[in-house]
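Quick note —
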Amino acid sequence: MDRSHIIFLAAGALACPCVALAEPSATHVVVRGESLSAIAQNVLQDGERYPELFALNREVISDPDLIYPGQVLALPGSVEAPAPPAPEPETVAPETVAPEQSEDVVVASSTSPQIGDRIPEPKREATNAIDPKSLELREIGWEELLPEGEEERLFELYQQQMALLYAAGPIAEGSPADRMIQIGTFNTVAELNQTRVRIPGYTVPFEYGVNAEIREFLLVPYFGACLHAPPPPPNQTLFARTDDPIRLRDLAQAVWIEGTLYTQTQESALADAAYTIEVDKVEVYEY
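Predicted structure written out below.
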């Protein structure tokens, strides 16, 4: 069943501070997984300058939180040429911490992600004719949770929502229309049901405190989702459960989780999820 789902975006998430515009002198082509703050960090060496990019590209971007692969963005005149993307760091074997241990499961990363930054996709190592079905644990990326054609459907839903959102004019902060939004569907990949998987992401706990013992939380693909940025689509959100409580040092922690994935819908005040994962193990994600 193709079920569309909408909850409402804060107007503040769409608002952009006024900035002085410089004449564009270079361009940048958006690639998959990028955000305006990430582009500002890589190109302008300052992630906080993303409002300049938004203001300079209002004809291309209607919402600073929504950019798409292939879009060509003008860069401020002070930039001679866009900096090449930084090479991916070598994968470092993560420190394993079993959920049942009393220590904090996650420690703060030395590299702080920017709001909207996606967690790097797992590296795929070359294999010699290995049948995936013979592997007990399957390492997956977030795109593998989307059924065929879902990215196109999601793009159309975003376009429709933006048109609807601005049809009545600007939204005043604090008004009834000033609410968070979750856009997307509950469409899932049937073959992933009851599959043991390993996937990286950021935690979004339902409760938080120094000694809070977490048994349920959301796992999302980009930093700040559900807290400082709109939630990802339901089929890009995992509802995670563990019998053995864990403790998180911060709200949004980069982790690897392993467990059994189910195509089972869960609803919560923060976001709805099209998938549920019964967690066996949580590890620190090393950038």
